[in-house]
Amino acid sequence: MFILKIIIASTRPGRKGPHIAEWVYDVVKKNEAFETELIDLAAINLPFLDEPHHPRLKKYEQQHTKDWSAKIDPADAFIIVTPEYNFGYPATLKNALDFLYQEWNYKPVGIVSYGGISAGLRAAQMLRQVFASLKLIPLAESVSIPFFAKHINEQGKFITDETLDHNLTTMINELIKWSEAMKAIREKR
Ligand SMILES: Cc1cc2nc3c(=O)[nH]c(=O)nc-3n(C[C@H](O)[C@H](O)[C@H](O)COP(=O)(O)O)c2cc1C
Q1: CB 135 less than 6 A from any atom of ligand 1
Q2: Is 37 in a helix, a strand, or coil?
Q3: Is 90 in the pocket of ligand 1 (CB under 6 A)?
Q4: For residue 115, what pLDDT band results from cuts at 50, 70 and 90?
Q5: Which of 50, 77, 105, 120 allows an S-S link to 135, with CB 3.0 to 4.6 Å?
Q6: Facing residues of 138 across strands?
Q7: Which residues pair with 36 in a beta bridge?
């Protein structure tokens, strides 16, 4: 069994990210390949990067960094649920990524992005550049949700459709293959 962490990137009051992440979590939870945890960056509440050393050295001085490291380190795979802010991804997510290094290395990541007509794709593309530096392996398969607000009902529940379900399932199946491959690589190090 692999450990999968789903990260909610948006942190603002009234955000929609958790509604989408709950849908992702409910689908992944049914998959026996993964033990899954939802991580909410709003709850993690990191300050702007305040470590004196490069994260590559893993010489953390702040307790919040040690806690963040302990959360991310055991993961075999990630799904990042991100909105698009001004054609990019949220600064909160960049900050959370920058805090760590080795904890991300050689692990696959699937992206679920949402937005208006763009479906958050510009944010997703930008993320791939940053993942390269962290040796996070982005999957080709992703879930892109255009006009996401149409999918959220009055009770705040995300209403999926056939295409989104298909895309999410495809991404999860790929994540299993890459989790296996990357675990083997990490063990060889
Ligand atoms: C600061 C800000 C910038 C935004 N920029 C974009 C954008 O570039 N593209 C887009 O599709 N939606 C954009 N939106 C609209 C978001 O898609 C929408 O507000 C969504 O709910 C944001 O996700 P969140 O609720 O999880 O924070 C923006 C929203 C905010 C708050």
Answers
A1: no
A2: strand
A3: no
A4: very high
A5: 105
A6: 109
A7: 4
